[in-house]
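Changelog-linked ticket: magnesium ion example.
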Amino acid sequence: MHSATRTLTILGATGSIGLSTLDVVARHPGRYRVFALSAHRQVDALVALCLRHRPVFAVLGDAAAAAAARAQLAAAGCPTEALCGEAALAEVAAHPQVDTVMAAIVGAAGLTAAIAAARAGKRILLANKESLVMAGEVFLRACREGGATVLPIDSEHNAIFQCLPPGQRTGAAAPGVRRIVLTASGGPFRRASAAEMSQATPAQACAHPNWSMGRKISVDSATMMNKGLELIEASYLFGLPESRLDVLVHPQSIVHSMVEYEDGSMLAQLGNPDMRTPIAHALAHPERIDSGVAPLSLAMVGSLDFEAPDPQRFPCLRLAREALRAGGAAPCVLNAANEIAVAAFLAGEIGFPGIAGVAEAALAASGSRAAGSDLDEVLEIDREARSFARGQLARCAA
Ligand code: NAD
Ligand code: MG
């Protein structure tokens, strides 16, 4: 017998993480009730999910999308009510009927709703790493004050969470931990030369060898900015400074991360590279449920390889470490500039090396600016860094 039915809001339901979450949910009828689903502009996809999961609310990015969804829902006789905008996202994330919020919007756009869930004391299944990178202290304070719990979805952080002592609080270093090792697949350009990378196309950058993900995080994996953002995420979640966080390239993506203890023990979590494992872990925590992921056969995998990351070809890793050491507004600036640069790369406006170029310029320009002390200040820093980064695009177009 499992615990009582959990009522769930999924922010970013039409994305890679959102769909994987609904896949796990559908495997456990009666265990989860879907209260609200959100999408930015994919009306047809969100309506299809509403017809299947019958949430109370569907939230879209703007009024036109919500009107289109409303018409389709009415035509199909589905009682789901379509809302729109950031306030509605925050409302379904903080709604009293909801106990669990999957925060799976991509980028800074996910922050406001994640904070609303934190203030309302929800169990937050945090895929949106950008929330922690932009607003680590503000977000964790909102969690403390609201009585929220954070369960990491990012596969590395979920692995670390599983390797730490039970009951470990987020934001505080666990006793006896010497360091944390984040594994990285190395992305599609692990073996590419700098010259090849300078010519990389969006299609090549998005062709991840092991994981199927949204386009933004796929490009972040190709630059290894994803691992850089994850270092910052890990620092906030697990209360460790930059000097105690390592990155290890592991091309098979079977070992999802490791915790090293003072006595020399290293605990790792292993599994096939499929996000339904961390999602199922967080959905059911502290229980365990079937995720639909095939059992791991180490005999089939054969060998596990590890190598140090190459700081020359992947400057974004160094930039993220610098931002983490600098603290203050630097991680927020880095994240904002990266989002602008990745969007420009995907739109064919800048070359692949331009992403690191824009991020580096934005970091340098932000100096030693203090961190935002509340959500509004964080959003202001984010806005200014985006505007600066847009100004840099022309210089980096090459
Ligand atoms: P995705 O692009 O596949 O989906 C993003 C979702 O967010 C979609 O539902 C989209 O409609 C919605 N969205 C996009 N822009 C929005 C906006 N401005 N306002 C409101 N909603 C918006 O992304 P994804 O790969 O599922 O990643 C989601 C988050 O999870 C990211 O923060 C990513 O870093 C993190 N994550 C993803 C994976 C993965 O395997 N995909 C792994 C670890 C962490
Ligand atoms: Mg990850």
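Closing comment: Example verified and attached. DSSP finds 17 helices and eleven strands in the chain. The first strand starts at residue 6 and ends at 11.
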